[in-house]
Specification:
With 268 residues, this protein is an alpha/beta fold. 37% of the residues lie in helices and 24% in strands. It is built from ten helices and eleven strands. It has helices at residues 14-25, 47-50, 65-69, 80-93, 106-115, 129-144, 166-179, 183-186, 238-251, 261-265, and strands at 4-9, 29-35, 73-76, 96-99, 120-123, 149-156, 187-188, 203-209, 215-223, 226-234, 257-259. The strands form two sheets. Strands 2-1-3-4-5-11 form a six-stranded parallel β-sheet, sandwiched between helices. A five-stranded mixed β-sheet has the order 7-8-6-9-10. Helix 4 links the parallel strand 3 and strand 4 (96-99). The two termini are 30 Å apart. The model has no long low-confidence stretch (mean pLDDT 96).
Amino acid sequence: MSDIRIVVAGAAGRMGRTLVRLISETPGCMVSGAFEAKGHADLGKDAGVLAGLPPLGVLLTDDPLPLLAAAQAVVDFTIPKVSVELAALAAQARIVDVIGSTGFSDDENAKILAAARHAVIIKSGNFSKGVTMLAALVKQAAKALPDFDIEILEMHHNKKVDAPSGTALLLGEAAAKGREISFADHAVRSRDGHTGARVAGTIGFAALRGGTVIGDHQVIMAGTSERIVLSHLAEDRSIFAHGAISAILWGQGKKEGLYSMADVLGVS
């Protein structure tokens, strides 16, 4: 059986370079294409060399279309605008699309869902296997403890551009599903000034930014005279790449549709 041909979006970035390196080291997988934004300083360079590997013979381009036409999967940790465009192209090419970008609007999510009618799209706010299991635990605990207040605290590096993080939102959505309530109607993303007493049943968020923190998340469930704290600490960016590669392998041969990392691990 030939190797799965994988295109890496944003291949010159920190996550992109990690993906190139780990895909190249994974048996049965190969980097068949790599691209970056128009005008990027690294266009024309070898993706392997940028990732600290020997040359792969895969040069960075700014045109993903011919790359996707010759591939079986694309992995995309970029920005929502790019991810929406790539999802449409993946649908045309009928290839697996793994999306790790965060900060999507409702309209952008709707466009990705539409693309998933014609392709296997695996989208998650976090591709860590540990975070996926944490979300499953949060869902279970939120259901079992309906009278406990839920607060989600996250911290990331000082270059992160969206808040709350996609992972924090994923955990909040898991809590809402456990209680069978609307996440949009119960999420409280900021507090400032004289806010009054906490509204029962809401899911609160707090976002911290600083240093080089890869990603720390805590889900605090506070009841009367007791608290449960469920947490996950990311120590290396490679955990997200390993999860994304697992998703690519899992998605081969699946029926078209929108999936998550929970589906990959069988805990959805």
